[in-house]
Amino acid sequence: xxxxxxIEQGLAERRAADAYRRRAVSQSGSGREISLNGQxxxxxxxxxxxxxxxxxxxxxxxxxGAERYGVGSAGSGHVTGFTTAHAELEQQLADWLGYxxxxxxxxxxxxxxxxxxxxxxxxxxxxxxxxxxxxLIEASMHSPATLRRFQHNQPTSLDKLLQAEHSGQTLAITxxxxxxxxxxxxxxxxxxxxxxxxAWLMVDDAHGIGVNGSQGRxxxxxQKVKPELLVITFGKAFGLSGxxxxxxxSVAEYFIQFARHLIxxxxxxxxxxxxxxxxxxxxxxxxxxxxQLQQNITQFRNGLAGSGLQLMNSQSAIQPxxxxxxxxxxxxxxxxxxxxxxxxxxxPPTVPPDTARLRITLSAVHHEQDINHLLEVLNAVTxxxxx
Length: 387
Hints:
The chain has 387 residues and is α/β, with parallel strands linked by helices. The chain has 14 helices and 14 strands.
């Protein structure tokens, strides 16, 4: 089979399964509203949970940073790309989250890949939650370690795997808030099982940091858990992009020596680090935003109670509406778009077969009338289906 034939076959299979992905071009960025293909919609697909991507203080910090440092870092952090802006942000993050060190990465995907690739060796094993993010699973599969997956959010399933004899080191992996279901991991029980077995726990809290816990310190802080490795990302509640790994002093130095994603990637622009420092201060002082977000979540869930739509067990900003069939999810998303609402139809392989869904995400910047309009459209759909 030639490359071209392989490509055409793969594309045809995706189309036949109603799983073909398409990108929409935004003319406005992603805020409370979004402009796509010349149309304006209420935006219920953004991960900007606190609305900080458009925060004036954060924007000014980026502009000021660009004036001081320029628009790019012009090198790896191991060459010339590590500035005072990066160093200050790393220290601020470490102090905020109570870890000796924080290391910045260009993305959450890169951070997860880097940690697993640098740490794991032959005879080691990785025990990952079945619903862990693709970046975690891919890195685990490509590492020399053995990968086993425990049942989603089931500490007893993890404990059973931990009890099996093993000669190397064990790294357990989970997420604070799961990106497709919106539920939270039982971190205390998972960490206890790891400690009893002499294993380390790695938590990717991309969707919990900034939203959960005191001062937005995240899901781990909210559950009073301090994993050996904590990954946070800035593309959600911080409203920007990039990531950081929180860890001990020696582990940070080890990553500086051996994490290839850190060594060989151009570091984030210093201006971005300046903006992230400003976003961090807004997150820390953001009880008003977190309270508004929680009110919006409650309004949405209460508004669909008894509607016949299948909401998943999520108290987070991620509110999946389970549909089942791929085409049905596509049709529902299209219907909402016709009513001025933009949502994402998530289909396999991103989620398990027969669990296609609308992934509705709420933000602190949504107005009460925005959510009421969404509820009216969704409730009208179920009323029509019941006739």
